Amino acid sequence: MVGIFQAFCEERVSRMEYQCLLNIMECIRENNLIQNLPNVSLILDKYYPCPQRDKSAQNKSSSSEIVEKVSSASNYTLKYVKEAKGRILKSIIIPLEQSIGRENFFCIVGKLKSNLAINLTTRFDNSGISLERRTGVPIIWGSAVKGCCAHARIAEMPTIVADEAALKENLYLDTFGGSVEIKADSTSKQKKIKIFKGKVDFFSAFMVGANNFSNPIETDIITPHKDNSPVPIYFPVVKSGASFVFIVALNKYGLYGVKEGRLVKTSAEYRAKILDYAKYALLEAFELGVGAKTSSGFGWFEEDKSESDNFINSLQKVKTDIAENKRAVEAERELESMTPIEKYRHRLEAAPTNGQGKDASFLSDEAKNLKNKSVEEQKVFIKVMMEVKKDALKSWRKKGKQEYTLIEEVAKLLGIILK
């Protein structure tokens, strides 16, 4: 629906089509269907009625109604906030570590010192918020993170220089990129534009902590005093105390350079210098604010050093879980390819002998029911007991258990000597 309103403004959608869509959205609202939508992103991006051209009080009230519904959709959002840490480690951190190495990127967990307003837009009467499409969790897009960091160090960006050599190893241009005009002297009409590509990638910042809130999103309000008829403007914000993880990594331009026509790896010292500069810019952006209304105190962060350390320290546990899941999947595939008798042998070998676990009594039950098994199953069972589960077999024999007596009888019929 965001695109529909934009298309209407650009006259790519007719007034009749636009009005028809508005009617559909109004029907959804009147029948209270939004109540059953768990994903806040869907509420805003799909089922929020596009504003009319007029800025009437009625239109403002519909805005506050939607914002209230967004703020109350808590369970769905919190579910994915709790899962976010593991998802980021699996889908971003581990691939980065495997591809470019741990020393070529860093993670910082930032904790909000004030409410965060992200993606406010006049198309929704200032009622927008930036949410991940699939999960509905608040997100600060990578372009916004990069923009805030670049703004924090904007004073160091060169605009016009007399000599191109002055731009060599300029940390601002190496980190963020940009274009610089090279002019030999002030009277010259000839100018040359040099374009630099940033050597650092700023990833989107995901929420990884909700500070025990029932819902990390709440409603804020602005009361403008205009034309002697103040109408409150409601907009959703991320609560102060929520945490986001910021990930910054060197890209291919930072990892490699061209020397004498050959592609060579940049020095470790140079890479560390760029990452340190990017980290300093990010921490400075935390103090200046991220998102909208920063001059009013919104979007101020502080680094949560303990959480930053815990985030990376939990990487090993995630790797172990991934390895175990991989082994489980491979074992399941192997099991599917087995014949019935091979599956039976596999289960016998995996069964516990200490009387604990899922199949605690499996060996005992199979021994008691051995005479009713097929000859092939009987042979497999006795072979496994002699070769793999011999300690259990000895224990049954010493204690004079019924299981051993039954196994002995079947073994004699099959001509097998128990060891």
Walk me through this protein's architecture.
It is a single chain. The relative contact order is 0.11. The protein starts with a helix and ends in a 5-residue tail after the last helix. It has helices at residues 2-9, 15-30, 40-45, 57-72, 74-99, 142-152, 171-176, 252-255, 268-288, 305-313, 315-336, 340-350, 362-368, 375-387, 390-398, 402-414; strands spanning 105-112, 139-140, 160-161, 177-182, 192-197, 200-202, 205-209, 217-222, 233-238, 243-250, 256-259, 262-265, 301-303. It is built from 16 helices and 13 strands. By secondary structure, it is of the alpha+beta class. Mean pLDDT is 76; it is low at 1-13, 46-61 and 122-126. The radius of gyration is 33 Å and the shape is elongated.
Summed over residues and divided by their number, the pLDDT gives a mean of 76
What percent of residues adopt helix (DSSP H or I)? 40-55%
Computed CA radius of gyration, to the nearest angstrom: 33 Å
Strand content: 15-25%
Summarize the biggest pleated sheet: 6 strands, antiparallel
Tell me, briefly, the overall form.
Answer: elongated
Distance between the first and last residues' Cα: 77 Å
Number of discrete helical segments: 16
Structural class by helix and strand composition: alpha+beta
Oligomer: single chain
Task: List the helices and strands in order.
Answer: HHHHHEEHEHEEEEEEEHEEHEHHHHHHH
> Which residues form runs of ≥5 with pLDDT under 50?
1-13, 46-61, 122-126
Report the count of strand segments. Answer: 13
